[in-house]
């Protein structure tokens, strides 16, 4: 006779706007399929995120136990949303900020391309830079975003300099220019 498998905790990952959790999709169906009352989650989520700007996307990791009880932990907002907020970009459907390649990367300039095979001096390999930039941020903003991201438990061991480099690379991919 086969042994019955013990039920295990299930993990649900959600990204919900701060203070905007409601039992409608995507929260309701994601938690309802696991047997959790989504209204309880929404009340607690909105209470925990009341200090954030309303609408800021907040990742939440919900652990659902076999007895249908749950706990959840909040993570820091995505780097892209922090960069776009620092650059003063208004959220909207027509923003071309999403997707890599809107601006050339930090090493993608005329001097760096001169030694490449097939690259002529004076010609820049610019990717999709014709799309343009959506805003600018200073190094101070980059540093503050890196400090916010360093507070997250899974990134505590990462050096602040490495996080700053990661934020600069993310800025280049979403169309935000970093100025000194």
Overview of the molecule:
With 180 residues, the protein is α+β, with helices and mostly antiparallel strands. It folds into two domains: 65 residues, Ribosomal protein L11/L12, N-terminal domain (Ribosomal protein L11, N-terminal domain, 2-Layer Sandwich), CATH 3.30.1550; 100 residues, Ribosomal protein L11/L12, C-terminal domain (Arc Repressor Mutant, subunit A, Orthogonal Bundle). It is built from six helices and five strands; from the N terminus they run βααββααβααβ. The protein has a three-stranded antiparallel beta sheet with strand order 1-2-3. Helix 3 packs across helix 6 and helix 5 crosses helix 6. The longest helix is centred in the last third of the chain and has 15 residues.
State the gist of this model.
The chain is an alpha+beta fold. 32% of the residues lie in helices and 16% in strands. It has two domains: 10-74, Ribosomal protein L11, N-terminal domain (2-Layer Sandwich), CATH 3.30.1550; 79-178, Ribosomal protein L11/L12, C-terminal domain (Arc Repressor Mutant, subunit A, Orthogonal Bundle), CATH 1.10.10.
């Amino acid at each position: 006779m086969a042994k019955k498998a013990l039920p295990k905790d299930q993990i649900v990952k959600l990204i919900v706007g701060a203070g905007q959790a409601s039992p409608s999709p995507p929260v309701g169906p994601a938690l309802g399929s696991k047997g959790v009352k989504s209204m309880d989650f929404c009340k607690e989520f909105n209470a925990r995120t009341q200090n954030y700007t309303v609408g800021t996307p907040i990742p939440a990791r919900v652990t659902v136990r076999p007895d249908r009880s749950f706990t959840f932990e909040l993570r820091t907002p995505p780097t892209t949303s922090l960069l776009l907020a620092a650059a003063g970009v208004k959220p909207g459907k027509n923003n071309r900020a999403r997707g890599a390649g809107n601006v050339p990367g930090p090493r993608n300039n005329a001097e760096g391309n001169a030694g490449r095979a097939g690259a002529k001096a004076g010609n820049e390999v610019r990717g999709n830079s014709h799309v343009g930039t959506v805003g600018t941020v200073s190094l101070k903003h980059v540093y503050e975003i890196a400090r916010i991201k360093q507070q997250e438990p899974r990134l505590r061991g990462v050096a602040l300099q490495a996080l700053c480099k990661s934020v600069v690379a993310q800025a280049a991919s979403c169309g935000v220019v970093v100025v000194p």
